[in-house]
Specification:
The protein has about 290 residues and is an all-alpha fold. The chain is about 75% helix and about 0% strand.
């Protein structure tokens, strides 16, 4: 894989993971549109998992103060960090330990996605990724649902107002993100808004929820790669470059998107998803007719 492809795909991953537009769909579509087929489908997926590891690192670093507080509070301690002492992230007094269940709601919300990932592993890896009409349709459908949830959701509940039922429903929404085009952040933010969370709270919970499910996927893929004898020759550098760039750009996208949500609605992303989804379906039909 040429390094420039690794760079482009890493940037696509960083934006697609944290903006509600589906990173998996955009990675697949980028390769499709540019005809990048140097790797077999299985290695493409392995590279995508490496890019997801980069965005996982972005979440761990950006939200480090919040993670520390959630873990300390979750195990009965008294968190010491506050917004004034954190260089970045979302720590504030309300998040510094008043809700000792938030860590466990994140764990609870991870369960549906983990079960779905186990049951639909092969479909997610091969069949879903090759169905461009399905990808386009999911971009449109989830975009419209996101717009409806934002319009009719109360948006009155903060991050610390999340309860067990919210976690379960948001976790179920995350499970659908196995289908490219759904978008993990898009589906979970949509579910959060439908449950009455404000935009920023829905996004923060979505980003934190990325960590356990992605860590599990990365560990499983790393194990399978090691069992298979490691990466093919010449792939070490592209993997390292992709991982590093997706992490660095990812932190910037997190900061941008959370700031954006404080002042703007999600309407632009709804429109984008619908337009891109329609374009993908039309292009897929044209190519099918051409064959």
């Amino acid at each position: 894989m040429p390094i420039y492809q690794a760079v482009v795909l890493a940037i696509v991953q960083a934006f697609g993971e944290f903006l509600p537009i589906s990173s998996s769909a955009h990675l697949i579509l980028t390769r499709w549109l540019f005809g990048w087929s140097e790797l077999d489908p299985a290695m493409d997926l392995t590279f995508d998992v490496a890019l997801h590891a980069g965005t996982l690192l972005a979440v761990l670093i950006y939200f480090l103060p919040t993670w520390i507080n959630l873990i300390v509070a979750g195990f009965g301690g008294q968190p010491k960090l506050s917004g004034r002492g954190a260089p970045f992230g979302q720590v504030n007094e309300a998040e510094s330990g008043r809700d000792r269940f938030l860590l466990w709601w994140i764990a609870l919300a991870t369960v549906p996605g983990a079960i779905a990932g186990k049951l639909l592993d092969k479909y997610a890896e091969i069949r879903f990724r090759e169905d461009y009409i399905l990808i386009g349709a999911m971009l449109i459908v989830v975009g419209l649902l996101m717009g409806a949830a934002e319009k009719w959701g109360s948006q009155t509940r903060p991050f610390t107002g999340i309860k067990a039922l919210d976690a379960i429903l948001i976790g179920i929404a995350q499970a659908f993100a196995l289908i490219p085009g759904v978008s993990r952040s898009g589906s979970t933010i949509t579910a959060g808004l439908a449950r009455g969370l404000n935009r920023e709270a829905a996004a923060v919970f979505s980003f934190l929820l990325l960590a356990p499910i992605t860590a599990g996927a990365v560990l499983l893929k790393a194990h399978s790669v090691i069992k298979a004898g490691g990466l093919p020759g010449g792939m070490g550098l592209p993997f390292a470059v992709g991982f590093a760039i997706s992490a660095i750009v990812g932190m910037g996208v997190i900061a941008f998107f959370l700031k954006y949500l404080r002042q703007h609605s999600l309407r632009a992303f709804v429109v984008y998803r619908v337009l891109i989804g329609c374009a993908v379906i039309i292009l897929a039909l044209v190519r099918m007719r051409g064959h």
